[in-house]
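User: Quick one: structure for sequence A, then sequence B.

Assistant: Sequence A:
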Amino acid sequence: PTATSPTSPSLFTKRRSSRAPSLVAELRRRLENELEGIRGAGTWKSERVIASRQGPHLRLAGGILNFCANNYLGLSSHPEVIRAAVEALEKFGAGLSSVRFICGTQSIHKDLEEKIARFHQREDAILYASCFDANAGIFEALLTPEDAVLSDELNHASIIDGIRLCKANKYRYKHMDMQDLEAKLQDAQKHRLRLVATDGAFSMDGDIAPLREICQLAQKYDALVFIDECHATGFLGPNGRGTDELLGVMDKVTIINSTLGKALGGAAGGYTTGPKPLIDLLRQRSRPYLFSNSLPPAVVGCASKALDLLMESNAIAQSMAAKTQRFRSKMMAAGFTISGKDHPICPVMLGDARLAAVMAEDMLNRGIYVIGFSYPVVPKGKARIRVQISAVHSDEDIDRCVEAFTEVGRKHRALP
């Protein structure tokens, strides 16, 4: 072939192919240096492989107590929830191989959406593959350049990313600072619609948004309120409906996004619930909904049964308060600083990233599974070990965890 023949590599192609290995090697060196920096800073995150189902007791190399799951109600391994998943799998199949609007909506999807709306006492609901997707899909569909969204500075990354996707005017107010929120609302009066967006419960600090005050300001300045309830649905409030029920503002919160992947069975999935016209709009315009496969039937079965159990009795949700108080009070009596208040997320504040990582490792050696959190998950200088209480932890489990923390804290001079 000649030099210009289609089958003959050009000079450019030869140069590009000869440079490719060196480019890959350069990329590899850069990545290895960055990874080494993460290890050196003590912020490396290891994944421990679990050889059992999720629950308060796990099997790794040996039996351990699990204090780091979002399995707030212990429903991830509840026999009725598992049975419901198996029945849905056998009746409706492994999956739909389709998005919802083509051929991906089964009766169980519609039943679960109706059940979610009824649980939250809202008009309608829409399912997503995750709450991350629900947060990615709502702001872009709802808000225009004429509107404004006001977001707490410590909102979950999925809320932040969802807001970035929309074209609304963006305001960020200081964490749970109502004076700053009011100032931002005053400045946002020039916009057509104002939406205040906040986590109901903040997952890194275990604190609860001041929804009463937020709703009062929203009413004063003609704003709507959106809350992400991933770390509240199922166990906060008298009936586990979340922070809006806990704080008595269910009729003042317009939109709720939450998850099926934590307290409600722990499998996967998320949702938006609120006014029916909003849900109808999301079915037409929300990109994560339009371009993602339907939730698998087994996941739908799990969540549906979890909601049945919650709506039949509030006993599971009510059991959380005493267990949470037991852990928090005993840890504070031992000399630890616990962030947040009255939430089963109990961050043990340590400050130093290395200390958090080493203490978490020593806790595992004592049979307690907890994880250290450090930058970039939390701000620099605010490393902590996040402990999460479950309804299926016994008093003995909690006491054993506190005893291990006390031993490890003394060993590493984290206690006075």
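Sequence B:
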Amino acid sequence: MGRTGCDYRCLLIPAALAFFYIQMRLFVTQSEYEGRLAAAIESESHCTSQSRLLIDQISTQQGTIVSLRDQNKRQSEECTQLKALLEDLERKGLKKLVDKVPVAAVVIMACNRADYLERTIESVLKYQSSVASKYPLFVSQDGTDPNVRSKAMSYDQLMYIQHLDSKPVHTERPGELIAYYKIARHYKWAMDQLFYKHNFSRVIILEDDMEIAPDFFDYFEAAAALLDKDKSIMAVSSWNDNGQKQFVHDPYELYRSDFFPGLGWMLTKSIWDELSPKWPKAYWDDWMRLKENHKGRHFLRPEVCRTYNFGEHGSSLGQFFQQYLQPIKLNNVKVDWKSRDLSYLMRDKYTKHFADIVRKAKPIQGTDAVLKAYNIEGDVRIQYKDQPDFERIARQFGIFEEWKDGIPRTSFKGVVVFRYQTTRRIFLVGPDSMKQLGTKDARNI
């Protein structure tokens, strides 16, 4: 019996230890749970706080957005009002400049040469003031040069327009100057403005480094009548590439040409309707000299230039300027173009008129053509076999050697004419020029 009681006591000890262990584990587990629960409650409180902060920030941002929208709306309304005001002022200004149907708008293309622009404007205004209603004057600036803008806007006698183009330029060939692309964009924009926004029927384009002759406007008024009558005339130029002092004489003489001269030229709205949709990305003047754009049409040009290009600086001309531009003779004779009969320039008369002059010239041959021409009284003609032969002869006389798309500069039917030393004319005649001119003297050259 005593042994049995001892056994029970021995069993109670492990049971008590086990119970104690279980209680300790429960306590530890409960403590851990309480800790986790507290952490969870704290985390929830933090999340709630962050959510409220985020909601507050979103509310603030929404308020800012609403404020910005209101500000943008106000600015948009202000811009609309300013645009309307500018257009109104522009209409009033244009009405002031034009009180009847003009002959042509005159636009000076400018960029960043304020000093050159001033010289050009002063030259134009010298002769434009008396005929301002016939020739409303514009300055079109490409870019934001402040000096050019302020200079242009300082003149009440002209309208200022500005071409702002932020689109990037992607050249087609490595190493190309983006300037050629920007110039082409500017020309298209300016002519679109003048022909389509202001609805002019003709536009004369000048550059910001040109001076004009006393009869510049009378010349273009007479030429405008020819443009209207003869659709085979694509444009009229005031420039002769071989217009250097030693190669010109007669301020009354005008020619048709297959080569686009540029440098002070006039075109009509109907021609621009054709050119504008396909205007090139760059090198617009070379593009104008492609036969595919001429479609058999010609350009009018004077013997003696009605514009003078003084732009030696701010360009890449260099030696070209010294040789070809600086010696140009600017006409100083006030020709009464209204009294001149220019019907010989019409398509149905001009080829015969020009052919008769060429046919009457004395033919000479040989490598010493310059010497022979100098010793002959009266006009002479010299035939060239091909482009290299033409370049050789042109080099001897000192005239332009360059061709574009198979056409020598200034030529008509392959014939290049210029004065030499005196009033005599030299005709450089292509291998089939006489045939193109329809003269029976083709075999006697």
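The first helix runs from residue 2 to 97. The chain is about 50% helix and 15% strand.

User: Thanks, that's what I needed.
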